[in-house]
Amino acid sequence: MIARWGLWEVPLPALASTSWLMMISVLLPVALGVLGSCFPPRRVWPVLLAGTSLMAVGVALLASVMMAGAQLVSFSLGSIPIALRLNGVAVLMLLVTQLIAVATALYTPGMLRQMAPLALGRWLWGLMGALVATLSLIWMAVDLLTLYFALELMGLCAVGMLLLSGKSDALVAGTRYLLLALVGSLAYLLGVALILGRWETLSLIALAEQHVSGPVAWIAAALMGAGLALKAALFPLHAWLAPVHVNAWTPVSALHAALVIKASLYILLMLWSLLLPASEAVPFMMAVLGTLAIVWGGLSAWRADSLKVLVASSTVAQLGYLMLVFPLLLAPDISAQAQQLAWEGYWLLLIGHALAKAAMFMAAGNLIFATGESTLKGLAGTSRRLPLSLLVFGLASVTLMGLPPSAGFIAKWQLLHAMILTTQWWMVVVLLMGTLLTAAYVFRLFRYSFIDSAPRHEFKRLSPEMDVIALFLALAALMLGLFAYWPLTLLEGGL
Amino acid sequence: MAWLPLVTLAVSLVAAAIIFWLPEHAWHRRTWVNLAAAVIKLMLVGFIILRIVNGHEDTFSLPVVENVAFVLRADALGVMFAGLSSLLWLCTTIYAIGYLEDSPNRKRFFGFFSLCVASTLGIALAGNLFTFVIFYEMLTLSTYPLVVHRGNEKALAAGRVYLRYTLTAGVVLLLGVVWLHSLAGSLAFSEVPSLIHYLPDYGMQLSMIFVLLVGGLGVKAAIVPLHGWLPRAMVAPAPVSALLHAVAVVKAGAFGILRVVYDVYGIELTVALGMNTLLAVIASITIIYGSLRAIAQQELKPLLAFSTISQVSYVILGVSLFGPSGTIGALVHLLHQGLMKVTLFFCAGNYAEELGIHRIDDLNGAGRRMPLTSIAFTVGALGMIGLPPIAGFISKWYLGVGAIQANMHTVVLVLVLSSMLNALYFFPVLYRLWFCQGPAHGQGKWPEERRLGRLETSGWLLWPTMLTALISVLAGLFAGLPFSPLEWAIRVAALEYLP
Amino acid sequence: MSTMSLNTLSPYISEILLALMLVCVAWATLFDRHLLRACSMFVVFALTLTLAWWRLQTPWLAFAELIFGGVLTSLAFFYVLGVVPLASPLLPKRDGLVETWSHAGVRAVLALSWLALLLVALYALTPTFADAFEGNPLIVAGAVMVASGLGAFALHRHLLRRLLAFNVLGSGVFLFLAGLAGTLVKVQALIVVGLLVAWLGTLLGALLIRRIYMLQGQQALADGDAKEAE
């Protein structure tokens, strides 16, 4: 696992350009965000221009990894060393982040134009830029200080963005999220305190070299795990998620569900593979909680009346799958083949879910915006009037259900394979039942949409790009399955 | 020409994309796209057939994950199914254009219709189980909007049942396939499967996987007791039912079982595991049960639905016989049943559209009012019973010979019994059509008469019906000629038995 | 009180006094239902903490605590109360929300027992940490602050008091961190980042509470579930 995370002293020196590119990839979103705040774009093309420049940095970093493999870059701020590493996983997540961020940014002008002129819209750009910067930092950081800094800033940006809609429900939900996130970060900091006290280092690479273990590592893992699980909305700590999403702006929900909660999960898995290298009970407990999450999230999505609650609850369930994989990744007696399969499945599932969930939130936002109804029943008859939004929702849910040829399907294929190899039959049952449960709640929406006898509503017109961008993301999630070979080569140990 | 299978597949996908993109009211453009795609595809499949005859086998391969690839392969068995689906797609498209005239949501309908056919073609050309699963699930998703097309309470309920059955089946199939993959690695379809080497060590697991695979495929093939969705899905429009029964869903299941038995497990291994007996038993039960239920039906479409349940299991029965004749019977029945069943559904649709007839009682004297449709129906029905010279006779003949060769006399009994039962439910219908006095003779009224065309009904509805009926007769009459279904089935069987 | 007088006492006793004072002020901040008094106590708390950092020979941290804790965070609290921009509407003076005993008890017991388990585990399992606890009263004060902050966070429903509890909890964590890991540069960096984040969070929270109060006069979250606070 250590090698997979790139937490080792890379023998070769980094390319000279890499450190610059890394800095640009973090600073450029901030600059673009500030620019957007000062001169809020009203059309798509300036956003597209800015987004292309950002993606170019991501692609350059990708090229760097393809040429020189995993790289480690050290900066120092005064006397504080900061290390960033670039490996396959990091660059993959970076690209996904940039892609989704650019897509949401392209979606935003259309949405803001349709709404009454809002002064708050200005803030969205700045916060979005800062959020992307912190996310990029999280994927690359390998010391606890940088991670802490980026995690906290990301959390605050996320809260700020979620509050922009300004409804009092949003504020209440956002306040709860804020308080929980802050307390979660303190739990993380307590864990850092223990690690610092015991091993006197913040660098994950140094920790990996020392093969940390023992009670202090366990307690630190528990503290950090609790804090991060709270931020990632992992199962018993998920209650804040749905209310926050119900009231937020569509692009904000998309970014949050697709990336922000994933960042916490990313850190959690990375730290646990360091701190709990030979634990069986903890990953097993995570898997049990994941099972409960799949069931609970699925049932609450199934019972949901409101479209956004459905989508948000499905996030809880999907995170359950990611939790279910923990034993395959972390438990000590897993064969290398099964671990590799689970590793690939985990990232495919995560990326597929990120793309699909962003698309789904956009499609849901479009449906709600056009019909003016936020309940499922209110969507009756939409299949005739809003076929494209519904199609996007359908394509995105194919990924969530894990049906072919989506990324979710290939991920489930790999995970099933790993589970069968390790004879974890109960996990197989959970994974497959989860598919059916997902289908149950997704098709509830379609059942309503196909009802033809419904009264006709006056539908508002959507900007075309709002549907097109959502369609693009949904198709990306769908096609990622068939073209998974190349992204998966990035996940092989050495890179 | 590795791209040939891919292009053939892409034709329908592109057609679907264009149809989704066209506006709802663009009737002419949509019709042109539909027909052009269907014709191009038929020509491409014809080209593939020629290449196979000349000894070329085109394979397209795209690695997806380690040891798993997306493979499209135009082999003889696959092309047989592809040919059936593209021929019937053309007929059904023409029929559907006429059938859905002036009805709402045609864009959605034809879009998913094209996707559905693309999935069927993908199933036909899939070169390994992984690719097969992809298209099998795609088929489930693309048929759902067709089943619930009418958007009323009954259609939505039917759609719910359909999804419950097929998605669960998909999950079971997936488990079987992944399990097999983890056991044996390669999932490629080949005429000489290598799975037999695993028999000594993994016999039990192989049996379990076989049951999972056949269970997953059996839902779509409507094997009793997994058939519950099929009669309910009858609420769909007639062309959808025709397609579902003749080529797409039901046949996909049966075709999958053929693939699993012949190209994944291999005949030897299936016999060694004792699975042929299992197949023979469930097929026999399904055949008898379907026929018995069909007799009890009051309406035409449910009768045809139960008839399908019974007829598709002939294919499985043929597979279970494990001799060249049985295999030929199974393969050729796959084609013949498709032709005849599509004819019957077209006729049922014609009666419903033109005269508003759904119940069998109302058919009295319809032969006089709609002679051409009724002749087509008679051809289909007699073929189903297995009378010469119609195509159905050929398949039953080979099945019977296969059963005798395999020394399975119970199967012969089942065949005879089922033929009698078939006659028992089809002859009353034919009698009513031709010999009863009805509204055409001045007695009573048709339930809802609409004059759709100069002929007995609209030409869009009539000509495809006549065409498929004609092909059913020709396939029986000229079974010995090259490129006839029988000849192709013999070619495939020869590959399986004499690789 | 000046640093001079503290330094003249024996260092150990002065640290004990400081620790005691921190704990007392923290409790006063946490458990006073009179909101203005609680916020004023927080200012005192921040100043005491500044002294503690000074005592630990980390002038930069003392400075940061003074600026972030003593000035900026306190300003945020007074903003919530309606004191700071003069003539803005005042929040009700007291926290009148009463939890049922069973509910509150369960929350408090959960939070505290979880923390107690942690501390016992630390103390028992690691000799190095045990030494740190005995030789350093400030780390004990930190631990007590963490415990009571967490308890108060779980217990209270008034948003302002939860925010206060978070700040006390955070300060406890910082002290604890400094006590366990020493006052290396990277520890100080970590704490400064923590202080910055705590201030930003408090500021955001303050803006929110004020806004919610203006919108609906609601001072508590509709159905805040304190179990999540863990």
From TrEMBL, chain A:
Where does the chain cross the membrane?
Answer: 20-40, 47-69, 89-108, 120-141, 147-165, 177-196, 216-242, 254-275, 281-302, 309-331, 346-369, 390-413, 425-446, 467-488
For this protein, the record's InterPro entries field holds:
ComplexI-like_HydComp, ND/Mrp_TM
Q: Indicate yes or no for the key word RNA-binding.
A: no
Topology class, membrane: Multi-pass membrane protein
The protein's matches in Pfam families, at most eight in alphabetical order, are given as: Proton_antipo_M
- The principal location of this protein is membrane
Q: Which domain of life is it from?
A: Bacteria
Q: Where is the NADH:quinone oxidoreductase/Mrp antiporter transmembrane domain?
A: 141-438
Q: Does the keyword Glycoprotein apply?
A: no
The cellular location(s) given in this protein's UniProt record come to: Cell membrane; Membrane
Q: Please identify the protein, giving its name as recorded.
A: Proton-conducting transporter membrane subunit
Q: Which UniProt keywords apply?
A: Cell membrane, Membrane, Oxidoreductase, Transmembrane, Transmembrane helix
UniProtKB/TrEMBL annotation, chain B:
Location, primary (coarse class): membrane
The protein's topology relative to the membrane is:
Multi-pass membrane protein
Question: Which keywords accompany this UniProt record?
Answer: Cell membrane, Membrane, Transmembrane, Transmembrane helix
Cell compartments where the protein resides = Cell membrane; Membrane
By its UniProt entry, which Pfam families does this protein fall under? Proton_antipo_M, Proton_antipo_N
Recorded hits in InterPro entries, A to Z, give: CPA3_Na-H_Antiporter_D, ND/Mrp_TM, Proton_antipo_N
Every copy of the NADH:quinone oxidoreductase/Mrp antiporter transmembrane domain together lies at 126-421
Where are its TM segments located?
A: 6-23, 35-53, 76-97, 109-136, 165-189, 209-230, 242-262, 269-292, 312-335, 375-399, 411-431, 460-481
Q: Where is the NADH-Ubiquinone oxidoreductase (complex I) chain 5 N-terminal domain?
A: 67-110
Looking up PANTHER family in the UniProt record yields:
NA(+)_H(+) ANTIPORTER SUBUNIT D1, NADH DEHYDROGENASE
Can you tell me which family this protein belongs to? Answer: Belongs to the CPA3 antiporters (TC 2.A.63) subunit D family.
> In its UniProt entry, what is this protein called?
Proton-conducting transporter membrane subunit
Per the UniProt entry, what species is this protein from, by scientific name?
Vreelandella vilamensis
TrEMBL record, chain C:
Concerning Gene3D superfamilies, the annotation shows: 1.10.287.3510
**Classification via InterPro entries:** MrpA_C/MbhD (IPR025383)
List the subcellular locations: Cell membrane
Q: Which residues cross the membrane?
A: 12-30, 35-54, 60-87, 108-126, 138-156, 163-181, 187-209
For membrane topology, the record states: Multi-pass membrane protein
Main location per UniProt? membrane
| Keyword terms | Cell membrane, Membrane, Transmembrane, Transmembrane helix
Keyword Cell wall biogenesis/degradation on entry: no
- Identify one Pfam family in the record: MbhD
List each copy of the MrpA C-terminal/MbhD domain by range. Answer: 20-82
Classify the source by domain of life. Bacteria
The protein's name in its UniProt record: MrpA C-terminal/MbhD domain-containing protein
- What organism does the record attribute this protein to? Vreelandella vilamensis
